[in-house]
Amino acid sequence: MRREVPLLITGIVGIVFVVSYFIPHYPFSEMEHWFSDWFAIVAACAIVLGALNLMVVSGQKIARRKEGWGYAIVIIATFLLMTIFGLAGGTGFRETGTGFDWLYKYTFIPLSATMYAILAFFVASASYRAFRARNAEATLLLAAAFLMMLGRVPVGDVITCFMPEGARMSDLAIWIMNFPQTAGQRAIMIGIALGLVSTSLRIILGVERSYLGGE
What we know:
By secondary structure, the chain is an all-alpha fold. Among the domains are: about 1-90, no CATH class; about 90-130. Helices cover about 75% and strands about 0% of the residues. The chain contains eight helices and no strands. The protein starts with a helix and ends in an 11-residue tail after the last helix.
């Protein structure tokens, strides 16, 4: 029963959501609303459990002086700081709203921007390895990337200024984005959708049970 009940609940919920999409009438529409409310409740409980698990794991790492335990101290300290300011509420904190808003705006957002800036170097490194003209496909990718980058900067139009309007480098970059790129993106999205449908059917029918653990 420990596995049959979750499989039964998953199958019923999945079937109801599929049917309610095509038949948005009672009782399926009402059941969809019920399940959505339960999803919100389960998600809230999962957030609480996740936060407690984070604190326990970080505390164990500090107690045992494992590698990177200094970062665990930062995690616990920042978590408690954000929680305290979030629960405290209040307004008028340096014209930004609450203290939580101030921390979010002047601490979290700059740190997120810094993280994305660091990722840019990894993207550049991966692009360098991917754009090597080893075969016809890689050569086509390299040429398209070169034209796109050249068409996105002013120097591209300066080089092709002698060409008529509509045939300059910026126009070529727009054409690549609107047609070849869109066609490839749609093909990828169709493949993702087919994979999502097949995986969903496996979960609803009980074929895929990896989310239960131990299988």
